[in-house]
């Protein structure tokens, strides 16, 4: 057993940290305020190879692994959780199912430009009436000659409106929820539209939208995997996606802790830095301990996936632990900053708002417990 990162992983961390601090952090507060996605940042991530970390070079990737990908999401989220989730949804939710279930032609047509970062990916599972109960979807796909005709809508789509390629799920038999099928949708397909953009508490520079299918024409060759295999594809995709969210949560928490330590050392009250009070220093100790535990779970799940071992339970555990840690740590960071922490002059209120979503998306904390307990008892 070796808890040290390899030289390659350390190099990736250093590269992403430099990029995050120099190119992402300076505009994070402003993009949050303006709810603005910055395409230039995505393009720079593509130049650095970050958009295709775990995929082989033959599919446009850099041939690294899921641990390197998690480190990248963590480091981006340490300064800007929106940028972290843009990469996470792109990699885990769009590229992963293409890599795992795509035909060679689908990989060359769709995975390659996504991994190279000339295109952005998204994933559409949730519907207005089906969130935690993902199997309760209503969107349909009717076979008509060489096409499927999709009708319905999906909500809460990360990268909605900025994505070029969407992996979506619909019922090929409207009366049978076992007929869920996965489809690859291009944004220019006839009958596809981007709907309402959500106004959100956090991750405000990551666009979240509705997507709508009105007799949307999807060629049969854009079925991903087998017809009727869609629910399993959706679930397997989330198994890995959840660990990307855990990495995002670890990054948010670390960013908040770093800010809190710096502030506690500098802020003087009653004639001494506030860090000299045990009430503050013990908070910092607890925050750091929870973050380290979350990071270890997250890296373990990423390592398991890279090694080809089962990782679904561990990934649900890492998101459960890291999401709760991010929430707890960011609340404490605001507390350490006191009144200043409640203002937009410091980043900790943004971290606190951003942390909340890690307890909700890619399966609420309650769903993680369901997934973990089912795996423990099956
Ligand atoms: N891998 C492979 N197969 C799986 C699986 C997995 N992880 N999970 C379930 N399945 C299979 C089951 O084995 C079962 O197959 P059989 O019928 O052949 O036995 C089938 O799928 C149905 O499984 P369940 O009976 O367990 O299904 P369920 O209806 O009880 O639901 C659930 C299970 C875990 C609650 C699921 O609905 C779920 O994960 N809900 C949460 C949805 C979610 O995470 N949404 C997030 C949306 S995406 C998002 O947030 C993205 C973003 O933008 C960032």
TrEMBL record:
Species annotation: Lederbergia citrisecunda
Family label: Belongs to the acyl-CoA dehydrogenase family.
Gene Ontology molecular-function annotations: acyl-CoA dehydrogenase activity; flavin adenine dinucleotide binding
Ranges of residues in domain Acyl-CoA dehydrogenase/oxidase C-terminal: 228-375
Domain Acyl-CoA oxidase/dehydrogenase middle: 122-216
Entry protein name: Acyl-CoA dehydrogenase
Region forming the signal peptide: none
Taxonomic lineage of the native organism: Bacteria, Bacillati, Bacillota, Bacilli, Bacillales
Reactions catalysed, as given in the entry: a 2,3-saturated acyl-CoA + A = a 2,3-dehydroacyl-CoA + AH2
Cofactor(s) listed: FAD
Annotated ranges, domain Acyl-CoA dehydrogenase/oxidase N-terminal: 6-117
Record key words, sorted: FAD, Flavoprotein, Oxidoreductase
Pfam families assigned: Acyl-CoA_dh_1, Acyl-CoA_dh_M, Acyl-CoA_dh_N
């Amino acid at each position: 057993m070796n808890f040290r990162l390899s030289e390659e992983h350390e190099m990736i961390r250093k590269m992403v940290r430099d990029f995050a601090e120099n190119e992402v952090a300076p505009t994070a507060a402003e993009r949050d305020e303006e709810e603005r996605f910055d395409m230039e940042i995505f393009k720079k991530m593509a130049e650095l190879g970050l958009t295709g970390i775990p995929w082989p070079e033959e599919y446009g990737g850099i041939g690294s692994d899921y641990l390197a990908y998690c480190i990248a999401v963590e480091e981006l989220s340490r300064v800007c959780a929106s940028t972290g989730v843009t990469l996470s949804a792109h990699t885990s939710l769009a590229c992963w199912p293409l890599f795992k279930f795509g035909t060679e032609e689908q990989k060359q047509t769709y995975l390659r430009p996504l991994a190279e970062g000339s295109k952005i990916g998204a994933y559409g599972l949730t519907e207005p009436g089906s969130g935690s109960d993902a199997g309760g979807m209503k969107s349909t796909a009717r076979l008509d000659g060489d096409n499927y005709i999709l009708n319905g809508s999906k909500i809460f789509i990360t990268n909605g409106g900025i994505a070029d390629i969407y992996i979506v799920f619909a019922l090929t038999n409207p009366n049978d929820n076992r007929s869920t099928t996965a489809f690859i949708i291009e944004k220019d397909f006839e009958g596809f539209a981007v709907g309402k953009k959500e106004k959100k508490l956090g991750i405000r520079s990551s666009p979240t939208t509705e997507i709508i299918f009105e007799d949307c024409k999807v060629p049969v060759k854009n079925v991903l995997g087998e017809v009727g295999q869609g629910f399993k594809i959706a679930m397997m995709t989330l198994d890995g996606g959840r660990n990307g969210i855990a990495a995002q949560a670890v990054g948010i928490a670390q960013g908040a802790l770093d800010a809190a330590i710096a502030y506690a050392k500098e802020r003087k009250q009653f004639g001494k830095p506030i860090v000299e009070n045990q009430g503050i220093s013990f908070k910092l100790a607890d925050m750091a301990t929870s973050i380290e535990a979350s990071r270890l779970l997250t890296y373990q799940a990423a390592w398991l996936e890279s090694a080809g071992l089962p990782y679904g339970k561990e990934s649900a555990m890492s998101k459960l632990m890291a999401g709760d840690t991010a929430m707890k740590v960011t609340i404490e960071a605001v507390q350490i900053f006191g009144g200043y922490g409640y203002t937009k002059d410091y980043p900790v209120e943004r971290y606190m708002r951003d942390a909340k979503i890690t307890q909700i998306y890619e399966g609420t904390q309650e769903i993680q417990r369901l997934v973990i307990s089912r795996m423990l008892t099956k």
